[in-house]
Amino acid sequence: MYSLEYMAAPANPPPAATPPAPPGEKTPQKRTIAIVVAAYFVAVTALFLIENVEELARLPFGSSIARKIEHFGTLYQFQMSLVPRPLESHYVSLLDFGSGQGNCETRRRITDALPKLAAARPAMIVSDIGFANANCINEPDTTAKLVKALRDVSQTTPLVLPDPTESLIEMPDRKADEMREKGFGDDDLLAIEPVPVPDAHIAYGVIELNADRRKVPVRWGVHATPGAPLMFRESLSFAAAKLYRSNFPDKGERLDKLAAAGYHPFTSLLREADFSTVPVEHISEESSIAKLKGRIVIMGFGDDLHDLWSTYVGRLPGYVLQANYLEALLDARAYRPVSFLNQLFIGALWFGVVELPFWFHKFSDIGALLRSFALSLIIMFVLYYVLLVNFAWYVSVAPPSALAIAGRVLYQAMERKSKKGAAQEAAAPEQ
Questions:
Q1: Distance (Å, rounded) from C-alpha 238 to C-alpha 351?
Q2: Distance between CA atoms of 352 and 344, rounded to whole angstroms?
Q3: Are 103 and 74 contacting, i.e. CB atoms less than 8 angstroms apart?
Q4: What would the pLDDT profile of 18-36 be if each residue is shown by its tens digit?
Q5: Is the pLDDT of residue 346 over 50?
Q6: pLDDT tens for each residue of 392-403
């Protein structure tokens, strides 16, 4: 028979319960969750700012901040590399005219190269070199020969030329001030008269670039004269893509919808080395003809210091950027970003997925971590395949999900440390 004294004194008394926190005071658990959620919100917001660095630059002191966060564009390239398709050039080859050598000399070189280029039988010729009517006025014969060469080539080969424009930044200060007084904005463009090419079959497109080079130009607002109303004109790459798709069964319907949507989509950039490039001096060689035949050939300057642009893959010449945009439009790599609110909503759902395995106490910390990581990879693949590949919607949630998992691991470590400390205090002999 057991004694009452023995039953009343167990050998291992349970640890004393942790007293509840006073009302209004945050417990360590709530504080940790708040920190993780705040970090997740900051991560999503930071990625949104990186994707919209062009708009950020318009704010006071925004340009200096924009230049700094632009260096984080490699995150964007990393996410684009998750798309299950190779990132390579399928349509475009480059014809390199080296460095700019003056308007008249450039026109002479192009006049000489055009018949040879047409003889290589490219699918289309696109020029990243513009021909303003006000240039090379001292050599009318040079311009007349260029006009004849353009007209002759356009009879057999689709030809797209720049629609010359100038922005306030490109204007002399006095002229820019006058245009601002007339209501011109920083995004408005003023048309410049191109060299007229009568009886030719030529498409034209505006050669302007976005401040954020990852964005594909689609249409630009242009004033034909200082007092004329604003009219929208297609960009050079978009005009070339529409002309190329005009003989397909859909007649470029997808591109028309993109233009009607009224936004400039994102794309992932190829490096200059990813394109087949032919120096103009070697245009008649057999190896060069093989690179040009059946391709869209973009003519431009590969070594002009005034036409080099900073991007997250390095400095690229203007005609390489145009090649990138044309490839993106034809290869369905023009991605529409999801709005900030939708990104937050998707991010919150993703955060819940990361948390889910930790709520099942039968999992160890390592097991819950591995399950969170596996679930993130599965949903990431589904989102990229469904939203990006099929609907061209771009969602940036991969880096925030990694942060959420890391935050959850930190929280688990802090929770274990807290429990261990409480157990030690309860086991310590009372003083």
A1: 39
A2: 12
A3: no
A4: 555 555 555 555 665 666 6
A5: yes
A6: 566 655 555 566
Torsion of CA 144, 149, 151, 153, to 10 degrees: -170
Are the C-beta atoms of residues 368 and 316 closer than 8 Å to each other?
no
Tokens of 33: 């969750």
**Eight-state DSSP code of residue 185:** -
Angle in degrees, CA 18, 23, 28, rounded to 5: 50
Interatomic CA distance for residues 359 and 390, integer angstroms = 34
Q: How far apart are CA 52 and CA 249, in angstroms?
A: 35
Tokens 């630059």: give the residue: 57
Please state, as a whole number, how many other Cβ atoms lie within 10 Å of the Cβ of residue 221.
14
Q: Is the pLDDT of residue 415 over 80?
A: no
Closest CA to 94 of 245, 238, 311, 272: 272
Q: Give the predicted TM-score (pTM) of the model.
A: 0.71
In which element (H, E) is residue 126 found? strand 124-127
Q: Which helix (H) or strand (E) is 330 found in, with range? A: helix 318-330
Q: Is 231 helix (H, G, I), strand (E, B) or coil?
A: strand
- Residues near 191 by Cβ (< 8 Å), separated by ≥ 6? 163, 164, 165, 222, 223, 224, 225
DSSP letter (8 states) at residue 342: H
Residue 398 has which token pair?
Answer: 């991969």
Amino acid letter, 52: N
Sheet with 159-163, strands from edge to edge, namely 202-206, 159-163, 124-127, 296-300, 92-96, 276-279
Q: Which amino acid is at 146?
A: L
Other C-beta atoms lying within 10 Å of the C-beta of residue 409: 16
From start to end of 117-251, where are the E strands? 124-127, 159-163, 165-166, 189-191, 202-206, 219-223, 230-234
CA distance 376 to 370: 10
DSSP string, 398-417: HHHHHHHHHHHHHHHHHHHH
CB 317 within 8 A of CB 300: yes
Q: Is 94's pLDDT higher than 90?
A: yes
118, pLDDT greater than 70: yes
